[in-house]
Amino acid sequence: MKYEAVIGLEVHAQLATKSKLFCPCSTAFGAKPNTNICPVCSGQAGALPVLNKMAVEMAVKSGLALGCTIQEKSIFARKNYFYPDLPKGYQISQYEKPLCLNGHLDIVTDGKLKRVHIQRIHMEEDAGKLLHETGHENFSHVDLNRCSTPLIEIVSGPDLSTPQEAADTYRKLRNILVYLEVCDGNMQEGNLRCDANVSLRPIGAKAFGTRSEIKNVNSFKFLENAIAYEIKRQAEILDGGGKVVQETRLWNQAKQMTTSMRSKEEAHDYRYFPDPDLLPLVVDTLWIEKIKSSLPELPEAKAERFVSDYGLPEQDAQVLTAEKPMAHYFEECIVGFNAPKKIANWIMAELMRELKSRELDITQIKMKPNQLAHMVALIENGTISGAIGKTIFMEMLNSGTDPDKIIEAKGLKQVTDTSTIEIVIDKIIAKETENVQRYKSGKTNVFGFFVGAVMKEMGGKANPKIVNEILRKKLN
Amino acid sequence: MKKVLEKMIRLARLKLPEEEMNRLTKKTEHVLEYIERLKELNTDDIEPTSHAIEVVNAFREDAATPFSNPKKIVEIAPKSFENLFEVPRVIDEG
Ligand SMILES: [Zn+2]
To answer: Which residues of chain B does A143 touch, with a Cβ-Cβ cutoff of 8 Å?
Structure first.
């Protein structure tokens, strides 16, 4: 049987606040275990939570950027379950009345535009961290530093039908949150996490099949792998006449498979109720408008501006604006040398290729935007050739040295002195008598050979335009 | 009713002696009967009550201030190991 997959995502993003959601403990990553804890976040009797205003504003920002309606009144609820990483015995979340409802996100997969529904965004606190490799093997250990750091959970509609669409949605969500500066988007540090609900139904069917929820996916690639695996697994079950079990499954990247996660299975009765310790949250129109006016330019708007202001092709604008630091780097280059298309070409071809092969991101490189801009300017004014430019580019990338210094140290300056070039050309014409004969008999395609020979002799430093001119004069 | 109560008690990780269970079952039945009576009221235009008083919005500004004695919190836990809370072994992998 042919099936179609129905996929929805739940993305947890840690908000980039300084302090936790309900207490003044620091949210800094990598602190010594249990140093950023207090009576509130460790669940001591009588301690009372007080809501972090900045976290609310960041959540509202995210909602606005995703086209959601911000709810005037939202309510914090207790989600009750027992697990050692949850000291209060409940997680403070939002249930019936979340902060944001009904938004959308546009993705382009294989050139096709798709509008993904964002069902809701709610605020909640994170749990602590369980450690299994410490101390006696009969015990686990708990670090509560992460406990109660602010999260938003973004829930998409079941609108996605391929692993690629899911990865594109996740990628775009990350880019938007990073653009908004509400989340660092660092998946290794766990401040962005994604669960995927996957089910299958026969093509054309309306009713949803039974779904499984995949957890523990911490990269775009893993998300694609995990969903692809899950689609195949469920199709095999259905084809064999079996039934898919509704359950939570974990993605195991090493084994390239999802495995059933049984331990939390029974407790899926969370008995939500409004948290009496927290007052209802009211975000009025005035506040929403104030937050709206503080929204930065988002990827789509930036791409449009890159087309209209810099005259870049649509495609280039998309590539350059996908990630905020890259867009920023490009614009810094333009400040240094106003040749948008030329700069864009260097960034998209050379720079992006090197970043990919070195597994670096733009914020980690030594080459500064004004250095790249200056090098492109040097090519344009004829000081260096494009080929030498590539050598300098690599050197700048490796060491962060200024292009002028590299040119001086390596003697890479382009030779534009006609008499120097003429001497070399004369030498080559004298040596290559056979090729000169060929040229004169009408086989003008050997011209390229002469250019190459001159360039080689001069270490690529001769100005190609002058070489061409002199050669033509001498050969004709 | 007893079944529902048993489930609640299991979810709350409680253990009650048999006679206590019987007493609670009766009591809970009474409470639920009362709620059934309340359900007869027409509440169509009434927003469900989440809080008893009409106060909203209590905020703190986003500033990090360390608690004076986080070490003490680990020390008063039933069990600890170095600077970590110690709990029975739990592992998620299926
Ligand atoms: Zn705290």
So the answer is: 84-85
CA distance linking residue B18 with residue A380, whole number of Å = 90
| Residue A110 scores a pLDDT above 90 | no
pLDDT tens digits, residue range A185-194? 998 888 899 9
Inspect the interface and report whether the beta carbons of A263 and B56 lie closer than 8 Å.
no
Least confident of A91-100, A365-374, B83-92: B83-92
**Contact assessment for residue A376 and residue A344, using Cβ atoms and an 8 Å cutoff:** no
> What's the rounded Cα separation, in Å, for the pair A151 and A275?
17
Find how far residue A385's CA is from the centre of its chain.
Answer: 34
CA distance A376 to A330: 13
Residue B93 has pLDDT above 80, yes or no: no
Map tokens 């259905």 to a residue.
Answer: A238
Give the span between the Cα atoms of A402 and A366, in whole angstroms: 11
Please write the tens of the pLDDT for every residue from B24-80. 999 999 999 999 999 999 999 988 888 888 899 999 999 999 999 999 999 999 999
Question: How far is A126 from A434, CA to CA, in rounded Å?
Answer: 79
Place of tokens 């294989």: A110
d(CA A206, CA B65): 53
Cβ-Cβ contacts under 8 Å, A32 against chain B: 83
Pairing status of strand A212-217 against strand A192-202: antiparallel
Res A407: pLDDT: 86
Tell me which residue of A312, A296, A197, A195 sits closest to A244, measured CA to CA: A197
Q: Name the residue among A3, A10, A33, A364 with its Cα closest to residue A166.
A: A10
Those of residues 14-43 in B touching chain A at CB distance below 8 A are none
**Span A393-416, average pLDDT:** 87
| A44 vs A413: CA distance, rounded Å | 70
CA–CA gap between residue A64 and residue A152 (Å, rounded):
13
Domains of chain A: 3-290 (no CATH), 299-410 (no CATH), 418-475 (1.10.10.410)
Residue ranges of alpha helices (H) inside A156-272 are 163-180, 220-239
Exposed/middle/buried for A377, CB within 10 Å: 0-12, 13-18, 19+?
Answer: middle
Give residue B84 CA to ligand 1 midpoint distance, Å: 16
Amino acid at A424: V
Please give the structure tokens belonging to residue A144. Answer: 């509560």
With an 8 Å Cβ cutoff, is A74 touching chain B? no
A340 sits in which H/E element: helix A340-346
